[in-house]
Structure formats: C-alpha cells, structure tokens
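[worker-b] picked up task from shared queue
[worker-b] task type: protein-ligand structure
[worker-b] ligand name resolved to 3-isopropylmalic acid; SMILES cross-checked against name lookup, match
[worker-b] sequence length check passed
[worker-b] input payload:
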Amino acid sequence: KKRYNIALLPGDGIGPEVISVAKNVLEKAGFLQGLEFDFQEMPFGGAALDLVGVPLPEETSTAAKQSDAVLLGAIGGYKWDKNEKHLRPEMGLLHLRRDLKVFANLRPATVLPQLVDASTLKKEVAQGVDMMIVRELTGGIYFGEPRGITIDENGEEVGVNTEIYAAHEIDRIARVAFETARKRRGKLCSVDKANVLDASILWRKRVAALASEYPDVELSHMYVDNAAMQLIRYPKQFDTIVTNNIFGDILSDEASMITGSIGMLPSASLGESGPGLFEPIHGSAPDIAGQDKANPLATILSAAMLLKYGLGEEKAAKRIEDAVLDALNKGFRTGDIYSPGNKLVGCKEMGEEVLKSL
Amino acid sequence: KKRYNIALLPGDGIGPEVISVAKNVLEKAGFLQGLEFDFQEMPFGGAALDLVGVPLPEETSTAAKQSDAVLLGAIGGYKWDKNEKHLRPEMGLLHLRRDLKVFANLRPATVLPQLVDASTLKKEVAQGVDMMIVRELTGGIYFGEPRGITIDENGEEVGVNTEIYAAHEIDRIARVAFETARKRRGKLCSVDKANVLDASILWRKRVAALASEYPDVELSHMYVDNAAMQLIRYPKQFDTIVTNNIFGDILSDEASMITGSIGMLPSASLGESGPGLFEPIHGSAPDIAGQDKANPLATILSAAMLLKYGLGEEKAAKRIEDAVLDALNKGFRTGDIYSPGNKLVGCKEMGEEVLKSL
Ligand SMILES: CC(C)[C@H](C(=O)O)[C@@H](O)C(=O)O
Ligand SMILES: CC(C)[C@H](C(=O)O)[C@@H](O)C(=O)O
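[worker-b] inference finished, payload out:
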C-alpha cells in the first residue's frame, strides 16, 4: 500500500467544515485505489493567530514542507481585518506559498452543464466555458522589493511596491502553461500589459521565445484590460491563460464568477518539486460559518487536484471528479448553487452524497 | 458669443471618422446654445508617427495645452505594433495625459434600456447598471520609477516597474471621486489590494481619512479581485468606484463590456485646471476603419462630456445626450449595437440622425 502524508490546514470560517468533508472523500477515494493517508492537521490563518499569535506558525510551515501535499480550507475573517499587515491571515497564505515555493497556481474555471443557470451570463455565452488560468504565484508585485510606506523629502507619505520578474521566473511559469495547454485544447493566451509595463515587455518576449519548443501549442498575447473584457464578451475563446501574480489574481476571480459557481472551483499551487498546495478558490465566508451551509465541492475537487497534480494519482482523482458529477446529476445542491427542482442539502450531506457516489 | 478653442486629435483607424461626425454635433449643439468653437486638428498617434516620426509631436502637445479642451478619436494599429516602446502610438497617449496633467479619468458605464440586450449578461443583471469609474490616470505603475529591463548580477534579464502613490496624489483623485459620488447616488467604493500591497494600504488610509469631509457620501472599500467578481455578479451595487491607474484600466474595461455597448461609452480626463481630454473608451478598430461602419456615439457622448466637464456648458451637453437618446429611440443602430427590428446605419448616417435630433 502506498502511504502519503497530507498536511491539513482548515483555517477559518467555513474552512474547518469543508476540510472535514473533503478529508473523508480523499480518504475513501484513496482507499479504493489502495492508497493510505496520514493526515496532520495544523493551525493556520486566523485560527493560528488566535492560538499562537502568528498566521503561519513555524510548526505549520515545517509540517507543510515535510508533507507530500497540503490541503487548505480558507482563511480570514472580520475579526482580524484590522490587524496590522504582518498579523493578518492573508500574510500567512503569502508566506506559505513562498515557503513551499509554489510558483504555479492552476485555477480552472469550468461551467458544468448542470450549473449553467448559476452564471449571470446568458446561457449561450456561459455554456461550454472550460478554461485553465495559470497564475504566477511567488513573484511580481506581491513580493517585489523595495516596498513599504515611507516619508519623502517633502515630509509626505509615499506607498511603494515593485513589480519585478526575472527571466527564469517567467520561463518556468510559461513552461507549466505550455505543458498545461498541450494536455488541454492546445491554445495558450499570455496576458500582460506590454504596451505600458517594462516587466510585461520582458514577460511577452520570454513567453514568445519558448513557443518554438511547443509547436503543438498555439500561442497568443493579450493585454490585461482586453482580457478582462473578452472574458465577459466571449469566454469560450479561452483554453489556457498564463499571466503574472496580480493580473492572475484579478482575472482568475473574474473567470470564476463567470462560471457562477465559485463554490465549485478548486485550485492547485505547484513548485518545481516538493509538496503542492491545494485549496478552494472561495474565501472563508464568515457569515455562514458553522451553519453547515457551505458548499464543500470546491474543496473536494481540490482534493482531486491534490491526487492528480500533487501525487500523480490520476485514477483516484478521477473517482472524486466522477462522484461529484454523480451527486450533481442526482440533483443535490448546496444553497449557493441551488435552483428550483433540485434537492437542497447542507455541507455534510453533500459530502455524504459524494461518498456514496464514490 | 462665447468662443472656445478645441484641439481635435483624430488619431488612427476609425478615429478620423468618428471625430469628423462628433465635431459636427459639437458645433451644432454649441451653436444652439450661443457657443462658437475654433477647431485645431493635430496629428497624433500612428498618424503622427507616419508624418513626423513621433506619436506626440511637440506642436500637438502645445496645441492641446493651449486649447480649452481636447477631443481625441482613437490611436493604434497593427502597423505600429512592432515598434519599439517609445515609438508606439500608446506612448503618445501616456505622454499627452502627463503633459496635460489629467489625473482624473471618469469612465461611465451605463446600460441604456434601449441597449440592454447587447450585454452578454442576463437582462435582469444588466438592466439599470449605471456606474462611474474614477480612475487615477497620471500616477502609479504607469509612470513610477525605477522602471526598465536590466541585467542582474547573474547576467539574467529582469523587468521592473514601480507602483508608487504619494499621499497628495491619492487625496486629489479621492476628492474628485467623492464629489462625483455626491452628484450621483452618494455611494463611493474605493478599490485596492490593501491585503497585499503597501501602496494600497496608504491608498485606503488616505481615502478613509477624507470620508469625514463628505458625510453625505457612503464610502466602502473592496479588494480588486473581489471587485472584478462583483462587477459580474451584481453590477447594480456600484454607483461610483475610485481606484488606481492599473486597476482602473482593467476594471473600467470590464465594466464597459458589461454594458455590452462599448461603442457607446465616452470618457473624460481632467486635471486641477487646464484643458481636459475627452475620448471614447473604444480603440481604433483598424479592421473596420474607412468603411463607414464605426459607431460614432461614444465620441459624440465624449463631446457632451467635453461640454459638461471641460467647459461647464451643461445645457449644450444635455442637448447632445438627449439627441443621442432620441436617435436610439427612433431605432437607428450601427452594426455593433444592431439587433433585429432596428434600422442599421453607418457612421455618417448615425451622425446625421443625431444632428437632426439636436
Ligand atoms: C488572500 C489574498 C492574499 C490572495 C491573493 O491575492 O493571492 C487571494 O485573493 C487569492 O487569490 O488566493
Ligand atoms: C492604450 C493604453 C496605454 C491605455 C491605458 O492603458 O491607459 C488604454 O488601455 C486606456 O485605458 O486608455
């Protein structure tokens, strides 16, 4: 039997609920494929702040680094919103990404036929949308130095951040994107702002230079403002998108909302080697926390990505994906994706239905 | 009779067509209100590159600065896309904004009842959308130093840009936004990424500090990734949005596409004093240039903004706005906003219909 160490970081809000459900699904899907998991649950985000005063305790970072893969719930909440920057849950997430060196963030945005009505886009525009956004995750303006708020020579406050990309950082994320596109429909759109930003000019140049190594992938370039429009105008034109950290943050959230079901969308963050980080793209939803209302499917599908991209266990991953579709086909829906005629269930019950379908 | 000097910068692609139509409308609306205009047409963008080798000739910049207001068509085209950065039409636009010190870019995104079907959003989501995006236009990562592509100590290329905002730059754009919100529905949403960026932390702090001076305006803050989602989920929640240069670039294009009729949307760029810059938000559409297919209404409505925000001639502005609505009510549509049952017209004929309605 194969054994894997999984670090579980439930985090805040609905995080613990969805992680507990996803853990059971992961366990059963693994069992059916002859896999065993050792789970190590660690404090993270606001929960860690309350417990030990920092959002990413040393022990949590170490456990994550020593695991085979990390499954994360969600972080943040009103309670810590007024904290100083370095004492906010979000900082824990940024540092975890940096510690794990997970530079490639894969964010699928797919409209399932079962859920096409959940989109605010017209049916003919939303149906069939199936894209993967590959976001650079450990560079750019999120981490660039110099940064900070300083006082200038006139005694005035000035806020500064640095958008910075070295050639190798662009190359490695571009390669992930080309490989991703190759396994999908063979179309890659690189998004930048090369008509204004120098960092984008380098980005475009490096991505273009790699294209000859992937002759089977059709590469195009698009400005970020245009991409923000095209996602709404005609989202089906996109297969794989690659972009920098901040543009990826914005566009992937936009794309997820186009699907209308962000409670369904998983993500994977991968490095050169070492454990990957897997998490739903939704937030901690403090307003519904503890009420058994959360949609656990995004976390369950993150567990599927963990199996596929993190452990190379494609069969177990496929079991989970199929079970999720099966539960949806049977009409089970949490509140966020409910429409009349379906069966409204809570977080736990949805988890049980997926377990049954496995 | 009041006389105004208007600098006309037709630019590239469909620019000359829409400017020629909008000029006639501006002239007649002014005439009806006892205003006279001296128009000075100057080369700009690709047209200027072809003529004199730079996108913003000295003479054009001077004419713009000495005018009472600048009306711009559109710039850019495939022809100049491979030019080096400083020899691209876009650079002319960035330098013109800087030369005119127009730090406040007002971009309305309105869904007219006549055009609600043009949106890819469901009717119930799109109808009634009426927001104003106030984008900072002469600061931030667009202009921040240091910038460029350099070789680092390992001999590797590195691309750098600097996101930088001084307190007074934030304050002045925030004031424009508060004033704008006050004249609208009294709601202002400031968009930033204060959970990650120091420049955004200062932005949020300064905007929040001004709120007490505008007790009649309800201020809220939103992260940019969430804003990109909310614009799709429930765009009607927004009245006035204020944000930095790059986020404004992305979100205003997203908002414009939500209306489904970017051929309709004008913009105004204003400074502390001196002439404002008025232009449609659409591009130069080289594929339809010279075919009398362009929608001139965005430029005509930009002329209305010129009258209102640039010259303080609200009555003449209102005449133009009413005439545009009248032409739409009579069923005239250019191809981009055409739907069955309406009358398909070209750029010139649309202009003539607006003139008739004036
Ligand atoms: C919480 C925040 C720091 C984070 C980000 O900006 O990366 C989030 O928005 C995301 O996209 O995962
Ligand atoms: C053409 C480009 C430089 C410009 C910008 O990014 O500001 C355009 O996208 C706009 O929004 O006016």
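[worker-b] attaching auto-annotations
[worker-b] Residues 15-32 of chain A form the longest helix (18 residues).
[worker-b] releasing lock
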